[in-house]
């Protein structure tokens, strides 16, 4: 039996045990995991150094090295995330509905664990801890398949988590790490119907596309964001400037950052110039439509590909549009249904934008950067769903649950 | 452009229009659809006769002919389903959550249409009408791909529905029928990411398996049901008999019918014999474990395959188990997570069964035949989901919706 199948089978067996573990027992396990991570700091950093050394030998970029590197402070942050998740309310067992039928049967709809969650992700070792904690808190077993660049780190982290679980009521087998770094282990997970109940990819576009296009197991798609901000004719210039700069430049590498700025042609020409200068002052390169380049000789001309590009960088495409209709059409064509914003003082335009734009999160007069489980107050985030089934937008603990109908009768049969 | 891509593109454009159609306008369209179906009864029956003639020429079974055949009464039933769906509450626009954050942004979570639904189904022409009505009521466009055996009928039905829609506010393009009866049109739909938001298969196991294994578009899996009834030692014999006979024989062809009866070894031996005789008297063939065959010399011995078989017929597999643990293990091994029942007077055993059995619907002292959108009081049913994501169990109108976050600010940016 392959490593993937063997570990997924163990996870499925553990999921049945975990289904009967109480909230207090799960929280106790999370706290023990936190304590053990901190106690094992030196060993984890030593394992991390092996990964970093290998990365440097293979010419890993400095920014990737930074994402991979662990310090005592980062390990403490991972431990704190575990303690925070222990404090969150447990959604399992929540009664979502309850009703009786004329024949006397009583039907109750309750939240239950999904079962076994497969996580496929890239470099950052904190995902190993976060995903484990979120899955265990919701009564799910989890099969982790992290990036090969972090393999030593992930293995050592999971060793600590397993040691902690062995002192708890949560079966250690509920947490499985795939150590086969070959692409074949991902391919196998994607087809593991009957053992994995869902696969969640977290990482770059090529990872997500591979999962979506090849999985036969149900997928929760996360990630891609070509997000727009539309500055309407009536937008307050100071607000438009503040929101656009924040959406683009506060952290350009993330999926909820703005990639395209749309500006109403009737927005004041001086205000437009100041808006563009503010972006430029924040270090942002502007790639504009013909009218933009006419107004801003220093801007680069946008190519056809620019409108569909998620730069994840200090670059923005900028288009001057004739009005709300053209803005909506542009977003319909190029948006990825993640986060979209209108800055306007016109109430009717705002309502139309919020109604007609088809996206997980639609904003009136606020930065798209708020699309985030913590900013929404969920206390945790397993990812941001860009699909329309099951969960859409920031996913907190309830996104890791399913439901079950419990029906109570006293001998009812169907006529 | 292929027929599938062309029609899906039209459907997607129509979905954007439909998103702005009011509940009253949608209900008006549904009533018009009902009126037109009844008015076109003769033409629909003439088209249906072409399909039936072709079926008879090709040796179609009598039961399939019966499923395909339309009569004025059946067309009236289809029209009545449309009128009933018009009467149901519209879930679109429902506010599911609303909260403010410390920075002053207000977040509202509302129900929105999914977008474009692909339906892939087999012979019964009423699915053409039901699926159209349920999708349009929830603001979704729909691309229908029915079985080739019903192609003339479906085309004529859709012609009537289109005529009705042209007199309404719902765009006729929101309803598309694929007329290419070749398997290639199904294959193309399964890969139509970006145009179809979900594919829902309805039909036999091979149709569903093909969709699940080959779709890159998200799927809602429906259908397969190897459902069990466990008669515990303390079960009331009259209730056990009534539930078992109902679950098996009231309508054996459906997915919520019982396929395997599990009986506690300590259930009274005389009661056991009477239970088996009651099934036999209802025309049910029993395929039993060794102990069953020892007790009932007239029963056939079950083979290994019997335990995983969905007979959809007057056949049941019967196993005598040592107790609740063995019953739970059997269901874990062979169940399809559809509907499972315990008949018992022991409260602790009932609660343990309802807690531990992993299925869409778990019953205490009631027939599994109640797993149905109408029996649950939903007023409609698009299918019964046997997956754990998005929807589980009978799917009413809310299962055909997604959600969207609307965020209202006054200039908030992220720090």
UniProtKB/TrEMBL annotation, chains A, B:
Reaction(s) this enzyme catalyzes, per UniProt: L-glutamate 5-semialdehyde + phosphate + NADP(+) = L-glutamyl 5-phosphate + NADPH + H(+)
EC number(s) from the headed UniProt entry: 1.2.1.41
Gene Ontology CC annotation, any one: cytoplasm
InterPro entries attached to this UniProt entry: Ald_DH/histidinol_DH, Ald_DH_C, Ald_DH_N, Aldehyde_DH_dom, G-glutamylP_reductase_CS, Glu-5-SA_DH, GPR_dom
GO MF, one example: NADP binding
Pathway: Amino-acid biosynthesis; L-proline biosynthesis; L-glutamate 5-semialdehyde from L-glutamate: step 2/2
Task performed by this protein: Catalyzes the NADPH-dependent reduction of L-glutamate 5-phosphate into L-glutamate 5-semialdehyde and phosphate. The product spontaneously undergoes cyclization to form 1-pyrroline-5-carboxylate.
Localisation: Cytoplasm
Primary gene name: proA
Family: Belongs to the gamma-glutamyl phosphate reductase family.
Magnesium recorded as keyword: no
Protein name: Gamma-glutamyl phosphate reductase
NCBIfam families: PRK00197.1 (NF001221), proA (TIGR00407)
NADP among keywords: yes
Keywords assigned: Amino-acid biosynthesis, Cytoplasm, NADP, Oxidoreductase, Proline biosynthesis
Domain Aldehyde dehydrogenase residue range list: 3-281
GO biological process: L-proline biosynthetic process
